[in-house]
From TrEMBL:
SUPFAM superfamilies: UDP-Glycosyltransferase/glycogen phosphorylase. The keyword Transferase applies. This is Glycogen [starch] synthase. It comes from Crocodylus porosus (Saltwater crocodile). The lineage of its organism: Eukaryota, Metazoa, Chordata, Craniata, Vertebrata. Pathway: Glycan biosynthesis; glycogen biosynthesis. It is an enzyme of class 2 (transferase). GO terms for molecular function: alpha-1,4-glucan glucosyltransferase (UDP-glucose donor) activity. The gene is GYS1. Residues 683-709 have a biased composition (Low complexity). GO terms for biological process: glycogen biosynthetic process. Part of the GYS1-GYG1 complex, a heterooctamer composed of a tetramer of GYS1 and 2 dimers of GYG1, where each GYS1 protomer binds to one GYG1 subunit (via GYG1 C-terminus); the GYS1 tetramer may dissociate from GYG1 dimers to continue glycogen polymerization on its own. Signal peptide: none annotated. It catalyses: [(1->4)-alpha-D-glucosyl](n) + UDP-alpha-D-glucose = [(1->4)-alpha-D-glucosyl](n+1) + UDP + H(+). Belongs to the glycosyltransferase 3 family.
Amino acid sequence: MPLARSLSVTSLTGLEDWEDEVDLENVVLFEVAWEVANKVGGIYTVIQTKAKITSDEWGENYFLIGPYMEQNVRTQVELIDPPNPAMRRTIESMNSKGCKVYFGRWLIEGGPYVVLLDITATAWSLDRWKTELWDSCTIGVPWYDREANDAVLFGFLTAWFLGEFTAQCEEKPFIIGHFHEWLSGVGLFLCRIRKLPVATIFTTHATLLGRYLCAGSVDFYNNLQTFNVDKEAGDRQIYHRYCMERAAIHCTHVFTTVSQITAVEAEHLLKRKPDLVTPNGLNVKKFSAMHEFQNLHAQSKARIQEFVRGHFYGHLDFNLDKTLFFFIAGRYEFSNKGADIFLEALARLNYLLRVNGSESTVVAFFIMPARTNNFNVETLKGQAVRKQLWDTANAVKEKFGKKLYESLLVGNLPDMNKMLDKEDFTMMKRAIFATQRHSFPPICTHNMLDDSTDPILNTIRRIGLFNSSADRVKVIFHPEFLSSTSPLLPVDYEEFVRGCHLGVFPSYYEPWGYTPAECTVMGIPSISTNLSGFGCFMEEHIADPSAYGIYILDRRFRSLDDSCTQLTSFLYSFCQQSRRQRIIQRNRTERLSDLLDWKYLGRVCTRRVGWARAQGFRYPRPASVPPSPSISRHSSPHHSETEEDDERYDEDEEAEKDRQNIKPPATMGPVPDWRKQPKKPSSEASTSSNASTPTLPSSPSDLSSPGSSIIEERN
């Protein structure tokens, strides 16, 4: 089934400025989400990374609304008095009626104002509000679903707050409410039921039913049109949640989603086609290292190599200089995140490397939080043995250096037989004996609570990747988030990503995909799929994604076995690259950062996009020698190692060619006269777009969204 094109803000040309602009001083933007100052998943990253660009645009008229979580507020929020008189009166009024509303600044870049609603303080109203929800919307929420009950409390408090704020304003402002995901949806449709003067935007980052269906191993994308959505939601006991989500989507003035693939999903499962596709971005400045990112890669790789030396002690029979680090990271959704196909591809890659006598070794990391009770003792022992060897080597080195210095000081060449005594040899032999190991290096770094039923461990047992000496592919399963304070692998996630060579994310269900996006802005090649929002976005804007280190796996139109074969070819192709080719590819990957910067993706407001039609621009293929071996479809013939030094490659010259190819947006200016004239009906106008123009309320005619279509030429 082909992807239907919604009106998208992913086009890279400029949008015309409009002559009649609403004064932003009289427009107030409230962004509502459960993950404001409350990290649960990817929406936290969305809001946090775009806070600066939104604050810069809206200034004092931008407020975030979220739940009050005391443990998060202590470390992330500075509580202050509201500077806005209407806001101060609103909070005082609600607090006097038994609510607990807090106001402060979120301590992130941009320092946006936050309004935090304590749902526990009004839990006594839950039954009354659930009754009102049933009477007005016929949505019943069961008592045992705590998350849905929290959504009801949060939604009613949000609607109460927006209504109170409207009443407290002396001069009625234009109010925009931007709601994220179903957990905030109750507040949206209550605003419509109560007829509050609020222009509403709803952004879905993933559909509830879609996530549940994909987790159930169904042929999701080939059956989108045939699902009985009410029955499927009921069978999974999420019908009340599905009703909340669907009600919010059908009540909102503007409905947006984060990718074309999710737009198709929403149209069939939620029965409304998104008005806009607003892709997620990142704060690229946070990751920017200019020309230093190659050095940062080397430094972070050295940290990972130290961990690998300890983890594989006694079996360190491979060359770390010829070892590649692959990784997959995210929620532990075995099939949705593609861990199943990745493991199968690793088994096939292991066979290819062995039969072809490759000198390369691959260490594949699985960074997926799971239920554990502690670190694996054998894993901790490995790091202790490595440290002991390091200390022994340093002690011998100091003694050797001192004797060498004294010998040279008196003008004699050192007698090598006297440089090390028996005590030194004894100490070194004891250190060597300590590295002996009679078992394979562990797969998992922790003790799993459900070891016998864990899908990753069971798959590893089936395919036989046990980290033996004969295996060219090693596997390490790290079932918790990375932290620089960990006694095992003391690196944070950003540093770990920089130190790896390739991120592998063969997801079956991924509405956007922040993990490959983070790889891109840090100059690390990645594998994504055409079922992820990121993969579709890159395919739309890059003529040859693999030449830029963005490999797009086809999981939509190929069978599972064919997709696994394609993934294996990507991995094997990457293993065949020389070090120089990988450096060139990382340079190209990092050059795509601007595509994912909120500075551009967050600039254009929904009010402009609602009427604009922009033509997209695709990054061309690089002009210089492609970095991939001959197995890649888009690459030139493989060059031998002896020819590499003669290959002509000038990074500055290639960057200049890219700057010439990537056209800057048209300069913003007044609306042309021809655009001011009313359009006459024509066949061309009727076929110009499949999207319908969003219907907005008459008063707050300007809406804001997280998307844009502006990409500027790099400086």
